[in-house]
Amino acid sequence: AAAAAASSLCAPGAPGERRKGKAGSDRRGANRKRRRSSSSPRASRKRCPGRVSRRRCHRPCSAKRQVCQASRPHCGPLFFRRLFLLCCGVAAERSSHSRFIFFFRARPFFFLFPSGQTRFASPMASNSLFPWAALAEARSACKKFGGLSFKDKQQSYDDAQKVSPVVVAIRESMSLEAIDLGGNTFSLSACEAVAEQLKKRQSIKYALMDDMYTRRKQDEIHPSLSLLGAALMQMDCLVFLDMSDNAVNPTGAESLFPLLSTCTSLHTLYLNNTGVGPAGGVTIGKALYAAYEKGQREKRPYKLRHFVLGRSRLENPGAIEISKALKAMGTLEEIRMNNNGIFLEGMTAICEAVAANPNLKYLELSDNVIKAKGGQLLATALKNCPSMVSLIAETCILRDGGCIALSAQLKNLKALEEIDFGYNEITRKGGKELLTTLKSLPKLRRVCVNGNEFGGMADEFAAQFGSKLDTMSDNEESGEEAEDGDEEE
Fold first, then answer.
1. I want to staple 381 with a disulfide (CB 3.0 to 4.6 A). Which of 178, 331, 354, 408 is the partner?
2. Average pLDDT of the residues in 261-278
3. Distance between CA atoms of 82 and 58, rounded to whole angstroms?
4. What is the distance between the alpha carbons of residues 288 and 124, in angstroms, rounded to a whole number?
5. Does the model's pTM come out above 0.85?
6. What are the phi and psi torsion angles at 67 (to 5°)?
7. CB count, 10 Å around CB of 6?
């Protein structure tokens, strides 16, 4: 009986038994086929569309390419990702070192700041030897006798009462020549109180008003710009104006038009990271040209020397209109129009402006599309700029055609101290010409050619320039050289 019971427990089909044999195999195969049928959501599962450098999520996504619930940060639910970014933004705003947001440098983070602008840690190229030429002088003037500096106090002036310390300081400074309000946030009522006092101080020469509208909305920013512009119009000796890192936008550019079109005493105008767009760029260009014409009529020429308008999406229309004004002036020493999405048509206008300013020393055109044809136009323009000190054209797709054309002209720029041709898809062919040219420049102090396709030529650059050479960590092996047709596209 015991043996019979034992044999019955081991019989096929008994509960808990792991079935073996052909019948069990067929049953399992049928189950697998059912699971893989077209009606099952697992039928066309694909890998997660999320991207992470050198790492992939190995958990498949559904047929509708929905984001999976894997434990990777990039493929988590959108809600939690946004919550994480929002927490980062709140922590940044409440800390005294909120500028660490600079390291993100991505458009998705713009929503952290209602003004629509991220704040950047440095107003220049990453390792540039030359910061904005006139900025140091203006900031030092604010710290001397006759100057007021509230720079980076991280104060939120939400009404006239909270801004009273600034108003009192302006009122008590009888011979005010320089004022720095950057790094704080001003409401409309606060700007109105400040503007009323500035109207009474017509001796101001330096006005630094960068990064003034963090967490402010456009219905506060644009009227504030009009009030401040009207106050600055009363100053006949204003030579320096910095409105960078503010959400000026096209409407704000119209608010600044009366000031920029009438102030012919300006030597320096900084409007970096203002998001003016193509329409705002056209407005600013027309304002500058109107100021130039006014100076000609009054026999007081408009001698603008330093102009910076980068990271503002000018594109071709804005670049063309601004270049028209800069070309007419002919007094520029510094032009920086990087990160503006400018293509060949706009770059042609910029090259004409460069050629018309023989005293130009600092030129930055990074992150625009120059390519080979634009490089040839720029090389022709540089013939008229023998005093060039710094030339930055990073990530401009110069390739070999543009690099060779510029290398032929760089031999004549004996005052050149800094050159940046990084990330331009230059191969050995263009690298040889560039290396030969740079050897002949006696004052060169910084060379950046990282991110190209030099291959073994990186060692030659390192041997020639040593500590003057930036890192070559992204240098790639030289691939097939681009054909002439590709160069001209």
1. 354
2. 96
3. 23
4. 23
5. no
6. -70, 130
7. 9
